[in-house]
Amino acid sequence: MLTLGEREDRHFLWRKSIMAWSYLCTHVLSLADWFIRADDDTVMLIDNLRTYLATLNPHEPHYLGRRLNVEGADFYSGGATNILSHEALKRLGDGIRDRAREVLHLSDTFADDL
User: Fold this and answer.
1) How does the average pLDDT of the chain come out, rounded?
2) Rounded CA gap, 97 and 18, in Å?
């Protein structure tokens, strides 16, 4: 279990999500082709998911989840579950590492969108 040293609260969802993706990239990237972030109430049909993922190349950057457009800007909703390919997680991890101060800004939000 990862901890931020903060109280358990929705206020830190963005920071928790980024720290979790960063941990996966740093410690387990080489162990899998696909990475899923889902809430505890998410239901998945694993056989269907496995069949669909088999049609995609994990060494290409694939993001699966809910893309929204608000006021002309795209963002990816965390509540809908996120699935990243090996290459997508690698790129996300590189971006987090290279721009950590911008990504982990002081104005935390309860949103955990990518």
Assistant:
1) 80
2) 11
42, burial (CB in 10 Å: exposed 0-12, middle 13-18, buried 19+): exposed
pLDDT, residue 68, reads 75
State the average pLDDT over residues 34-56: 92
Q: Which residues contact 6 (CB under 8 A, 6 or more apart)?
A: 12, 15
* Separation between Cα atoms, residue 94 and residue 98, nearest integer Å: 6
**DSSP H or E run through 54:** none
Q: Which of 6-15, 34-43, 66-75, 105-114 has the lowest mean pLDDT?
A: 105-114
Q: Read off the pTM.
A: 0.76
Give the Cα separation of 39 and 103 in Å (integer): 22
HSE at residue 4, side-chain half, CA atoms within 13 A, is 18
Question: Token pair for residue 86?
Answer: 């090996």
Angle (nearest 5°) at CA 97 between 93 and 103:
90
- pLDDT for position 100: 66
